Amino acid sequence: MKDMTKGSPAKLIIQFAIPMFLGMLFQQFYSMVDTIIVGKFLGVNPLAGVGSTSSLNFMVIGFCTGVCNGFAIPVAQMFGAGKEEDLRRYVSNSAWLCIIFSVVLTAIVVIFCRPILVLMGTPEEIFEYAYIYIVIIFWGIPCTFLYNILAGIIRSLGDSKTPVVFLAVSSLINIVLDLVFILGFHMGVEGAAYATVISQGVSGLVCLIYMRRKFPILRISREEWKLKPHFIKNLCMMGIPMGLQYSITAIGTLVIQAAVNSLGATVVAGVTAAQKINAFVSCPVESLGMTMAPYSGQNMGAGKIDRLGKGVRAGAITGFVLSAVCLVLVIFAGRDLTLLFVDASETAVIEYSYQFLLVSTAGYCLLTLVNVVRFTIQGMGFSVFAITAGVLEMIARTLAGVVLVPLIGYMGICLANPLAWVFADAFLIPAFFWCRKKIVQTKNGISS
Prior knowledge:
By secondary structure, the protein is mainly α. The protein has one domain (9-437). It is built from 16 helices and no strands. It has helices at residues 9-42, 44-51, 54-81, 84-119, 124-139, 141-156, 162-184, 189-214, 229-262, 265-281, 283-301, 306-338, 347-361, 364-379, 384-408, 410-443. The longest helix is centred in the first third of the chain and has 36 residues, at 84-119. It starts with 8 loop residues before the first helix and ends in a 5-residue tail after the last helix.
């Protein structure tokens, strides 16, 4: 366990973010290995089918991840405040909520999966590949909840290293299962989906075993396992807005995906490869954002409001430096990275991928601010603001898909992410100062 309420904010954030970065790399490894093997061994249409589900996947799985991250914030606050009994009650009540959410959400998305793919205009030649892959992923939603809530709790207690080890093991299992299912059993895209679900389930179970053995503070009594309305309410107020933020943001990506689908399977394959690379390359910037939630949560619990601004400044400066490094990497290696997914003969796919990567990576400084400020605000307890930021991102991506693509074609697809980050930053930056002012006023007993 690590106390983030003392010491240099910059040093603490960087030290915490490094294991987070490695963990995110391993998480992306799940998805990336699937895509590489599908593209190399099954062909362009299966690759496009898997890729065409990315926005739908993000909408649903992102909701799961966001909810779990939100549930972990009260845990971080109670840890910072030294309230161990309340901490355990938040952990137990979040476990019950995750069980309920996973069962209900799985049933809903599995039933409506096919109609949604039809509504998105998924090309006929890749439709069945898309459906088979994503419906299996959705059946694995309980595994997603299991890993993310446990990893979130562990991080809230200041340990960002342990989940990385578990993900490393799971990534190796994922790679082996991909090869066995696709090359050995000739299962097609369903093999890649099964490998992902099984691997995440393993990482979740290992997290559970580790927590039970290594964290005495989490040894929950029978009484503490009881559902309590007060704790349920607080968890939902934190978790649901964070989950909805991901889902609302994803509505815009669904519009973009529909626009991509309208441009044909070659464009879909190019964007698929680019999105996988983009998710991998952006891990350093994303990890900084994930770090800010436990950092700000612990400091809020400890009442150290002055450390919030220092943390945002340290995170933003670090992110700007990393953004420049990522851009240089893409400029010189973007095309070569695309070759991980397709053969060199697929020149059109490679160029579509490279163009998307260049434009997106050039906007990483904007993404840095989105992540650092948004997660700080969430850690401060203002999770509902995440929904507003998500709505603005959705509006921006919808405008790109509906207005820019008809006007400027494929470049409209490429500009969707940077435009969304501009919209979100325009709201989040002033929102942070408002939230900090509100907290100071409350602390000092001043009504606004």
